[in-house]
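Pilot study result, target chain (150 residues):
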Amino acid sequence: MPQPDSHELIGLIKRLAALVHQQVDALLKPHDLARTQYVVLRHLRERGGLATSELVAKLQVEPATLSGIVDALEAKGLVRRVERSDDKRRKDVQLTEAGRTLLANIPPPAPVVERTMLYGVNDYDAMRIRDVMEHMVDNLETELRKQEGV
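Predicted structure:
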């Protein structure tokens, strides 16, 4: 079987990622949430409260970017910043009751997008797509570790 031009494959992957993001954004828009805001709320629901430094690491964003996300969520009454008992200079971010209620009323967008994306694809092919993509991720992660000397 002929190999696709690698630039063509990378272009398709980028286009697929962009479309997934657009679909997630469309599902969250009626709830007045941006994708990154939803991700913060989800992490807070899973862990209770998180230090801003932990959120920066989880979202892989700059501290100033996270600050803007948390400011917007705080303005909506969905999260609150709380001083840490061990270090008054640092703050944790916690979900409010309004944040918990909102999350309870939002169907998780990932399964909805996956169903749409895989519509008409049989179960075997869907499993193969996942396996091939996992293999591609493993290849790239291995190469990056080699380049970093890890």
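One observation from the pilot: The beta strands are 49-51, 79-83, 91-95. A full batch analysis is planned for the follow-on phase.
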